[in-house]
Design a protein that fits this description.
about 40% helix, alpha+beta, about 130 residues, 3-stranded mixed beta sheet, 3-stranded antiparallel beta sheet, flat
Length: about 130
């Protein structure tokens, strides 16, 4: 993969706040300030390549594709605050693929995603002070 100014700006956009997912449309708007001809598909395709390289994490949320700077190279899960978007890594017991494969005969599990959503402690504290 060639390292271009556009790709560098993409990584800079997501690394500014590595604890939050960012809508790809926000990154798109940021890049178009300097590169107005850059297409949304090009940005999305580059983020897919970055995901394959283990640089970023992608997720679909409320009909929006979001991107986040990858926090750890090992398999992990997240708690995501519904108010501020902050992401916290959580530890879980390993998932037993065989348990699910017995329920779904003939399938082979190749991966999974697990996210918890709610309101983080900081947002709850802010709400308590506002009331």
């Amino acid at each position: 993969m060639r390292w271009t100014k556009q790709r560098k700006m993409m990584i800079e956009a997501v690394s500014r706040d590595p604890q939050r997912y960012v809508d790809i449309t926000q990154v798109d708007q940021y890049l178009r300030q300097d590169y107005p001809g850059l297409s949304h598909n090009t940005i999305y395709r580059n983020f897919k390549e970055f995901e394959d390289l283990g640089i970023v994490e992608l997720r679909q949320h409320n009909d929006q594709m979001q991107v986040k700077y990858r926090c750890d190279p090992y398999h992990h899960h997240h708690f995501i605050c519904d108010q501020c978007g902050r992401v916290q890594e959580i530890k879980m017991m390993p998932i037993d693929d065989a348990f699910f494969e017995r329920q779904l005969p003939g399938i082979k599990i190749t991966g999974h995603r697990f996210e918890l959503h709610g309101i983080c402690a900081q947002c709850q504290a802010k709400q308590g002070h506002e009331q």
